[in-house]
Design goal:
The chain has a domain of 119 residues. Helix content is 48%, strand content 0%. Helix 2 crosses helix 3 and helix 6 runs antiparallel to helix 8. It starts with 15 loop residues before the first helix and ends with a helix.
């Protein structure tokens, strides 16, 4: 197989630009980034109701949630489209909180938080909570925004304790925020 002339056949070779520098001279470190272009946000991203949570490649959460949807245990009258949407959005928000793209652990976290990993007493409440969330942006944002930063960043052991507290508060919070 032919090799491009700029690719060294020996992986231990040093890059060419380093060989052209005199001994003891190195490239200066990169300068700090300054928002100078139109549309650059000087201090983070705008936040508030209905703004979402920015992160790299958050759409990947939908692909991962669709791959995991066969493992979700749904209650009666619950639609898989609503479950996938809410799980993907919570997973994307969790990944964004860590500054990375979503991974399958984020999907598992969101599914566990919402109780899709097993059938429990939250299933009937969850069915009413996520009803039509796949089509209602306000309801979906209210559910996702109700998950606090401390819960998103919690380890799996801490998430179980914090998750039960969140489950107790979320129906009231969502009904208040979804009607705004």
């Amino acid at each position: 197989m032919p090799t491009d002339p700029f690719v060294s056949p020996d992986p231990d070779d040093k890059p060419r630009q380093q060989q052209n520098l005199p001994p003891g001279v190195a490239y200066p470190p990169a300068k700090a980034w300054v928002p100078t272009r139109p549309g650059d946000h000087a201090v983070g991203y705008p936040s508030g109701p209905l703004r979402g949570a920015p992160g790299p490649n958050v759409g990947w959460a939908y692909t991962l949630a669709n791959r995991a949807k066969d493992r979700f245990k749904l209650a009666k009258h619950e639609h898989i489209e609503d479950a996938v949407t809410v799980v993907a959005e919570i997973a994307a928000r969790r990944a964004g909180a860590f500054g990375r793209a979503p991974v399958i652990r984020d999907i598992e976290f969101a599914a566990t938080l919402l109780g899709y990993d097993n059938t429990d007493d939250f299933a009937s409440t969850r069915a009413l909570l996520v009803h039509d969330a796949g089509h209602d942006y306000y309801r979906r944002r209210a559910i996702v925004d109700s998950v606090g930063e401390n819960l998103l960043r919690a380890t799996s052991n801490d998430a179980r304790a914090l998750g039960s507290q969140w489950r107790a508060e979320v129906p009231r919070v969502v009904e208040t925020e979804a009607t705004i």
